[in-house]
Design a protein that fits this description.
Blueprint: E1 46-62, E2 67-81, H1 89-102, E3 106-112, H2 115-119, H3 123-128, E4 140-147, E5 152-159, E6 166-172, H4 184-194, E7 196-199, H5 215-227, E8 233-238, H6 245-265, E9 273-277, H7 290-296, E10 298-303
Parallel strand pairs: 8-9
Antiparallel strand pairs: 1-2, 2-6, 3-4, 4-5, 5-6, 7-10, 8-10
Subcellular location: Cell outer membrane
Protein name: OmpA family protein
Biased composition (Basic and acidic residues): 290-304
């Protein structure tokens, strides 16, 4: 981790290049050592509470003129001051500024987040990222960026007189697909063995739009159905427990129906297929971890 800076440090961070719209690419690249994620050690007298790390997520970061959507590893927590230690948002921000400057980063903005910007974040996303967006619409955001040759590190401190301060660290990284293509024969083998098989289909965030990368897997599912004309399939959509329950139910149902429509487009008789969304009612893993939530977000085929 970056070493802790004394609480009375008051050196302001370098400012980001000024322009009408903030340009990430205009920020100088730093090669200073960072240490391990989440890179920042809190100043003396403060500790993190409600800390959470998500291995891969998409979150909005306020840049002063817009919400910049960033994908990667996310850490977030609120702050707690020790007994007898007065809480000071200024002290926290000064420490962050000094740390960011010391590793070649810049201060992007220190400004109030307008309600209109927060309202542009879809409600389902706000429900799903409740921790990451904690008190965002009531806060002043101190946003910093450390730009690296291979990734960016965003740090955002949020504070207001009405709510405890919180912060978020995002290390950008490209998405690495871990799902594998199951050939028609393997799909059929699992279906015959257990009665159910998971279909690796990817959707646009919070939508029932099937991404083009899923087409080869759908083609294999259609091939399985063509190879066995008597086979009838129920498509089940499932989500994790993040966000509104009724929204998740509708989303999972729409995704199941989207898969049916894709199979019909491959020439499969719609009468052999059915679709139903189950929302978060049938988890297969612990929703308390990101890995568990990822396993619960799925589409399953089962014999009818």
């Amino acid at each position: 981790m970056v070493s802790e800076v004394a609480p009375d440090a008051a050196t302001p961070a370098a400012s980001a290049p000024t322009s009408q719209a903030f340009d990430v690419s205009a920020v100088p690249v730093s090669d200073q050592p960072l240490g391990s994620f989440p890179f920042i050690q809190l100043p003396a007298g403060y500790s993190a509470t409600g800390a959470q790390t998500m291995e891969y997520e998409r979150v909005p970061v306020w840049t002063g003129d817009r919400m910049e959507w960033v994908e990667g590893k996310v850490y977030m927590s609120s702050f707690e001051n020790e007994e007898g230690k007065p809480f000071s948002a200024l002290e926290l921000s000064r420490n962050l500024e000094q740390l960011v400057t010391s590793v070649g980063g810049v201060k992007v903005t220190e400004s109030e987040v307008p309600a209109a910007a927060v309202e542009q974040i879809p409600q389902a996303t706000r429900d799903r990222l409740e921790g990451a967006l904690l008190w965002l619409e009531f806060s002043t955001a101190n946003t910093y960026l450390i730009r690296r040759a291979d990734r960016d590190v965003w740090i955002q401190l949020r504070h207001s007189p009405q709510f405890p301060a919180s912060w978020m660290v995002v290390e950008t990284r490209p998405f690495t697909a871990t799902a594998k293509l199951l050939p028609a024969a393997e799909l059929k083998q699992q279906l015959d063995s257990t009665g159910t098989v998971r279909l690796h289909v990817n959707f646009a965030t919070d939508k029932a739009e099937i991404l083009a990368e899923s087409q080869p897997q759908l083609a294999e599912a259609a091939r399985m159905l063509r190879d066995d004309p008597a086979l009838r399939i129920a498509v089940g959509g499932h989500t994790d427990n993040s966000g509104d329950l009724s929204h998740n139910l509708r989303l999972s149902d729409a995704r199941a129906k989207a898969v049916v429509a894709a199979l019909v487009a491959e020439g499969i008789d719609a009468g052999r297929l059915s679709a139903k969304g189950f929302g978060a009612t049938q988890p297969v893993a612990d929703n308390g971890s990101e890995d568990g939530r990822a396993k619960n977000r799925r589409v399953e085929l089962s014999k009818r």
